[in-house]
Amino acid sequence: MKQATVTAYAKINLVLDVLRKRDDGYHEVAMVMQAIDLADTIVLEEAQRNWLITDNKHVPPNMNNLAMRAVTLMQQYFHQVPPLQVTLQKRIPVAAGLAGGSTDCAGVMLGINQLYHLGLGLSDLERLGAELGSDIPFCMGGPTALATGRGEKIEPLPACPDLFFVLVKPSFGVSTPKVYGNLRVAELREHPDVNRCIRGLEEKNAGQVLRSMGNLLEHSTFELQPDVKKLKDSMIACGCPHVLMSGSGPTVFAAFEEEAQAQQYYRTVSKQYPGAIFARTVNQNLLEERVALYGTHGKEISTN
Ligand code: C5P
After folding, report:
1. Atom 13, ligand 1: which residue's CA is nearest?
2. Atom of ligand 1 nearest to the CA of 135
């Protein structure tokens, strides 16, 4: 029986600016998004009915899960897609601001597209993904992109120079709608500089990329969860100037140009936060290899 295995990468926001609240309840954003090599593994196999198996108790094993909503959406549009069993091996923390649910959703759609030769291009997949969530279109492509609109309009950016990250996810989660709901954009005068970050990418200037990192949502999340601000301060105190909350939080990451420095910092931070995660930027080659197809007898088959 045919099956697909997909590596679904997490993302961080190097810059997250919010421009205004829209009439539809969403916020207009401008974000520089970057895929990192922290990843979930998804296996898609034909089954008697749609169902999800996961090793993470924080993932609800029901049809509201984004991975399973991706399966039903694809089945609605493409009747040749049969019932599927989705096995989800989670490494990306849940409700962390790392697009874990969104990347699983994108991974399921990418896997189904290849497994059933649907022939969907990136823009088709981005459009379908946007039906299920604002961060999903980015997770279809990457590895470095500008996301605008409510986050669903994606323009590729020059690949980010290699960067290394140490991520810490607090034990609690935060609700993205609450974080956006608590943000008073009009009152905030200082916004992160998206264009400065983009220039840094164009010039392959890792230092400038790091210096332009910023996230307007920190104002709101820090107000709702002061422990996230404390975490950020303590990570700066551990010896890294480039520390930022990812997405709506609560994960905070420290970013480095030099791998050895990042490894040293990881060892220090891990003593205080044993769940700290080490990650690096994902490049285009890794992204292109993220779907593997297997035929009968478990033999890998070409994805072309
Ligand atoms: O699109 P997604 O389902 O990920 O968004 C979750 C919630 O986050 C939205 O219902 C909205 O409350 C908030 N949001 C927002 N502006 C955005 C993205 C999300 O207000 N650009």
Report:
1. 177
2. 4
